[in-house]
Amino acid sequence: MFHNPLSSLAGIGPAKAALLAFELGLETWGDLLNHFPFRYDDRTVFYLVKELDADMQTAQLRGIITGQQLITTGKIMRLVATLVDADGNKLQLVWFNSIKFWQQKMPLGHQVVVYGKPNFFRGTYSIIHPEITVVAGALATDAIATDNPAFENVAAQSAVTENTIPALSPVYSLTEKLRKKGVDSQVLGKLVQQVYDQTKQLISENLPLTVVEQYQFLDRKTAYQLIHFPTDYAALEAARYRLKFEELFFNQLRLIRVRGLRKQQLAGWPMSKLKLFTAFYNDHLPFQLTNAQQRVLREIRQDMGSGRQMNRLIQGDVGSGKTIVAFMSMLMAVDNGCQACLMAPTEILAEQHLNGLQPLANAIGLPIAKLTGSTKAKDRKPILEALASGVLPLIVGTHALLEPKVHFQRLGLSVIDEQHRFGVAQRARLWDKNSRPDQSNELGIETTDLPEVIAPHIMVMTATPIPRTLAMTLYGDLDVSVIDELPPGRKPIRTSHVYQSQRQQAWHFMQQQIADGRQIYVVYPLIEENEKLDFMALELGYQMMQEHFNPMGIAISMVHGKMPKETRDYEMDQFVKGRTQIMVATTVIEVGVNVPNASVMLIESAERFGLSQLHQLRGRVGRGADQSYCILMTDVKLSSETRERLATMVRTNNGFEIAEVDLKLRGPGDILGTQQSGAVDLKLANLATDMVLMTQARDVATQIIERDPDLTEPEHIATAEYLAGSAATGLAWSRVG
Ligand code: ADP
Ligand code: MG
Question: What is the arithmetic mean of pLDDT over 307-323?
Answer without folding.
Answer: 86
